[in-house]
Amino acid sequence: MTAPVTTRSSADLIRAEEPVVAHNYHPLPVVVARAEGTWVEDVEGRRYLDMLAGYSALNFGHRHPALIEVAHRQLDRLTLTSRAFHNDRLAEFAERLAALTGLDMVLPMNTGAEAVESGIKVARKWAYEVKGVPADRATIVVAAENFHGRTTTIVSFSTDESARQGFGPFTPGFRIVPYNDLAALEAAVDETTAAVLLEPIQGEAGVVIPDEGYLAGVRELTRRKGCLFIADEIQSGLGRTGRTLAVEHEGVVPDVLLLGKALGGGIVPVSAVVARRDVLGVLRPGEHGSTFGGNPLSAAVGTAVVDLLETGEFQRRAAELGVVLRGGLSALLGKGVVGFRARGLWAGVDIDPAVGTGREISQRLLREGILVKDTHGSTIRLAPPLTITSEELEGALGALERVLT
Ligand SMILES: *Cc1c(COP(=O)(O)O)cnc(C)c1O
């Protein structure tokens, strides 16, 4: 690749972060300086296969040429208007995203957490204006072990103590039920319920896939009880599982869909609430907004992401290579792997604690030139760019086998 942009070493840059960057993350000791496709390169020129893909923000790989070209062209023309004015990219982005997802209307935001917050606000407003829930009584039912982001309201209904400890007081109005349990959900939903908010597959929890029929059951239950089904597909959506959306595996269309991560093509933060017109239509001027939401650069990149997904190529690759991934992981069962859950190019792999913690395995893989991230103690998550080749995937599985034995 090209000449280095810094003369400082990785070790020096890691040391330099310590006093000036908040310690809200515990990164692996690699300092990435450039990337292309499925590969990243550190400051010293060492190459690594990216098996995390920015928690699915890089579904199309690093710097996908079609996305980079659109971004460059847009940078040279118009980047930001604010929604005080119209811009010439937003209508197409919204039309195309709505068509891709089978819904009507788009509320453009930036980060995933903002999309979740916006979905909660829309659901509450819908509950008061359409469903007739008495003022300030709306409830939203969520699942235990969820991950929906990091704002004060969102951590209010997290069950992860490290995400909550020290951040109270919390926002009321949420009921937490076990995931994958329709009876518990049924018992929690009542006439005050605005929405059920769920991840169709729980990513941060370790790629937890509900039983067949659960999502269809949630759809049936929410329809019967007259509340909204909000699917948080910020991580599971946009090709990762072998379909455009993870809910498609059960033929489900939610009332409200939350998208983020890959929607920004790995270039800019782009998120969206996508919903039917009778739901998103409750918002009126001045009631909600974002300075950067729907900006022309984001809209251009988001439209280019929709272009890529419309080809079906990435969904197909995720489905086909998912077979390779599952096969490779099955072969490791009993050889350092005690269990795994996988769908498409996405897997949560439970490592035998006798072999090492998830962090230790991630460190050993780093030395093998593979980037992964642990989640919850002894689980590692595999989520490569959907552009990965089967040879690269086999290489990563081979490296995993080596570090486990
Ligand atoms: C990452 C994630 C979020 C939060 O997205 P941010 O862009 O980090 O705010 C919300 N929900 C799910 C399912 C996620 O994976």
UniProtKB/TrEMBL annotation:
<dbReference type="GO" id="GO:0055129">
    <property type="term" value="P:L-proline biosynthetic process"/>
</dbReference>
<dbReference type="InterPro" id="IPR015424">
    <property type="entry name" value="PyrdxlP-dep_Trfase"/>
</dbReference>
<dbReference type="GO" id="GO:0042802">
    <property type="term" value="F:identical protein binding"/>
</dbReference>
<dbReference type="GO" id="GO:0030170">
    <property type="term" value="F:pyridoxal phosphate binding"/>
</dbReference>
<keyword id="KW-0663">Pyridoxal phosphate</keyword>
<keyword id="KW-0808">Transferase</keyword>
<keyword id="KW-0028">Amino-acid biosynthesis</keyword>
<dbReference type="InterPro" id="IPR015422">
    <property type="entry name" value="PyrdxlP-dep_Trfase_small"/>
</dbReference>
<protein>
    <recommendedName>
        <fullName>ornithine aminotransferase</fullName>
        <ecNumber>2.6.1.13</ecNumber>
    </recommendedName>
</protein>
<keyword id="KW-0032">Aminotransferase</keyword>
<dbReference type="Pfam" id="PF00202">
    <property type="entry name" value="Aminotran_3"/>
</dbReference>
<dbReference type="InterPro" id="IPR050103">
    <property type="entry name" value="Class-III_PLP-dep_AT"/>
</dbReference>
<dbReference type="InterPro" id="IPR010164">
    <property type="entry name" value="Orn_aminotrans"/>
</dbReference>
<keyword id="KW-0641">Proline biosynthesis</keyword>
<dbReference type="InterPro" id="IPR015421">
    <property type="entry name" value="PyrdxlP-dep_Trfase_major"/>
</dbReference>
<dbReference type="InterPro" id="IPR049704">
    <property type="entry name" value="Aminotrans_3_PPA_site"/>
</dbReference>
<comment type="similarity">
    <text>Belongs to the class-III pyridoxal-phosphate-dependent aminotransferase family.</text>
</comment>
<comment type="pathway">
    <text>Amino-acid biosynthesis; L-proline biosynthesis; L-glutamate 5-semialdehyde from L-ornithine: step 1/1.</text>
</comment>
<dbReference type="InterPro" id="IPR005814">
    <property type="entry name" value="Aminotrans_3"/>
</dbReference>
<dbReference type="GO" id="GO:0004587">
    <property type="term" value="F:ornithine aminotransferase activity"/>
</dbReference>
